[in-house]
Amino acid sequence: MDRPLLVYLWLAFGITWGAGGLALLTGGIRSAHPLHPLHYLAAFGASIAGFIVAAGTGGWAGVRHLLARALPTWAGVPWYAAVLLGFPAANLAAAWMLDPDSLIGLPSWDRLICLVPITLVLDTGPLGEEFGWRGVALPQLLRRWLLR
Description:
Helix content: over 70%
Low-confidence stretches: none
Radius of gyration: 19 Å
Number of helices: 6
Structural class: mainly alpha
Order of helices and strands: HHHHHH
């Protein structure tokens, strides 16, 4: 196995499970506070490891290359629009069809639009792993297994 990939895997699992284990030991996961720092460190462990490996192997140019892959190309703009606009619209439509009364307590549209950047930054979904697994590990695995 290539050394950068091995280092990435050790860092990704070490940061994620180390922070997650520490959070379990300190009661951070069961905490009523949803923004516990150990939770976010564990959720973003794969991306943190990806940036460390990118910086270690390519310096600032490696980090810039990793970030550049996240920017949409003109061909990808419709997909970004579909995700950023279509997904919330589909969720609201499904909620309305299942229970029309569930949307009564929904904040006004201007308040919802202000919440979008906050949820994009604080969401611990795929953003916490994308730079690591797809940005660092996948290209190295493809090079190793497909380009023999």
